[in-house]
Amino acid sequence: MNEFNWILAVFRIVGVLVGMSTAVFACWILSGCQTPKHISGVFGWLLLIVLWGLGGYALTSRYALGLGAVTHLSDQFPWGIWKGLVVCGIAFSAGGFLTACMVYIFRIRTFYPILRPVVLTAYLGYILSASGALLVDLGRYHQIWRPIFYWQHHSVLFEISWCIILYSCVLTVEFAPILLDKLGWTRASHAVHAITVPFVICGVILSTLHQSSLGSLFLIVPTKLLPLWYTPLLPLLFFISALISGFAMAIFVSALSFWIFGQPLEPRVLTSLAKGMTPLLLAYLFLRVADLTARNAWVYVFLYPLQGVTFTIEMLLLTLPLFVVLKTRWSGRRRWAFAAAIPVILGVILNRLNVAWVGLLPATGSNYFPSWIEVTVVLNLVSLGVVIFGTAARYLPLFEHPDVGGRSHAPGAAGGKEAIAQLEARGA
Amino acid sequence: MISRRRFLQTTATGAVAALSARRLLAETPADPKESAGVLVDLTRCIGCRACENACRVRAGFSPLPVATIGYGPGEGKLSFRTRTFIDFRDGPDKPKQPVKRQCMHCVDPACVSVCPVGALEKTQTGPVVYKESICIGCRYCILACPFSVPKYEWDNALMPRVGKCDFCADRQARGQSPACVAACPTGTLKFGKRAALLQEAQERLDAQPDRYRYLYGDEVVGGTSWIYLSNQVPEELGFPLGLPKEPLPSLTWRAISKLPFVVIGVGLVLSAVVRWRTRGGTEQP
After folding, report:
1. Residues contacting residue A396 through CB under 8 Å, at least 6 positions apart
2. Would you list the domain boundaries of chain B?
3. Chain B partners of A144 at a C-beta cutoff of 8 Å?
4. A78-425 has CATH 1.20.1630.10 classification
5. For chain B, where are the E strands, in sequence order?
6. What is the pTM for the complete model shown?
7. Domain B36-247 has what CATH class?
8. Complex ipTM
């Protein structure tokens, strides 16, 4: 026993040191291979070093001791916030297929400049929230590949696994030009462009399937999920709210690229996105209210205090942006569009957590609240996403316009370097 | 730029795939008449816990201590190591009613339908069995079970398992009755074919209306292999409130079975849009 504890301690120390040194390296890369010059930079470095150090401790503990020792999961409450992160992360990555659809299928020029950053966000969302969180959450994480070979077509989770695997391939194709342009492999980049449109179509189909299926996951628990959230409409509601959060995330990412990375951004990009989001929000709220009324479920707001409060906050967060958007003379202002996106993002996160966590508490007789290790792992995955995005923004042609294809795109539609490369290839 | 031929090819391939998927997804239910079942006559149960002891021994765990009265901490509920136990329920104006708990072995089990890799299986003979070597540890079965039966081996860091009653499938294959049934001294548990047991339960209900009032398991969630006869309301005996008569997997199936149409519909619409936006070889503004 003593010997085991000693080994565990060494294991944990190694984990913390690896986490902290990775954080130092990441910060150094992120700040352009320089040490921090200002006090805010030092603070940022310290924050990441502490967070990833704790993350090293959390991960080593989880893999050494198992789920029971480090999480507050139990037989009453088998799915915690790690599964919640999967559900939330995938909802937010909906921006990827939405923007790709508007750019490659509908060819709306307004959105060309934001395609690459939004696709990268979606890519990170899928890799970190789906694969990353599942690698921590699955009891047999080393068996994560099994759904590829063991088929069970009655299972929603099986369908979601396949959609995520295939959609990750689609995202790789959509993301590849960024990397290939950086490397200067023009011919490979063109080869990828040639197959992009069919891949985008597949991506939209796959996203429609698994975004709605995340809601279908909870159709099997009619007695465990509170009627405030349980409805046969769950798949439809999840799909619409994923579209909404996709718009909101596109606004969020492009606004941040504008403010933090100083990229040019026409105000009409954000306002068009906010306009696209509005009818969906209205439809979503109408469906929710009609469904709750039809099922006589409003009374549960008063029967369960905690669930009543989280439900009310969720509905308020999703209603608030309507007031922002319907405000007269708001359009043309980036800040207002951004202000509409923030409550939507929070509202959809809260909706997913309500369905996967809070709404399940009363019937399961559980008082689950995540342990600090569970929270740390979630924060680590999110911060990893932020760090990778920041690094990509610094080193990759992330903010250049995509080459959408078509023989006669207008000059300037393709990225600067790319257009020059094309001209050179033609022997100009 | 994408040619018309490629569109047609893509769309046709998608449609064929979706249609064949639809045929593949046709359901094949096990024959409920031939499957095994147990009739639990709660009016005969004295709460001796012989079934619990026999189950522990058969599953390879330590037997109950001699002269056990009551439950210690962490006992008195289903867990990874406790596949069955006697739940002593307080009845109004009544002595404590012992209720045996174990997997109900639903006719159309939710756990089997949700498992993404098919680690749980409803066998033709009745038992719902867990195939440890296939499990990935997603714990969806634990969430989905309406009776909250499957439990997890939370302290196993590398190969955690799901623990649940397997209806002694191995004993049944050898022609024996489950260990708990064999151990019952009062005839509370009766093992047989589910259809025959349902008939017998109905006969008992009709013959002794004072002694028996309720039958549970005949139609809840599409029926269970374990059926209970009692003189108390099933919900008072600790069975979950508000379960539908419809099998739970059909709630999910209604959504999954629409997916092929989504694939075809979205694919056709998007292909049409691309054609429209790129017509004549040039992009429209």
Report:
1. A178, A179, A182
2. 4-25+257-281, 36-247
3. 136
4. yes
5. 36-41, 85-89, 97-101, 120-122, 128-130, 151-152, 162-163, 189-193, 214-216, 226-230
6. 0.88
7. alpha beta
8. 0.88
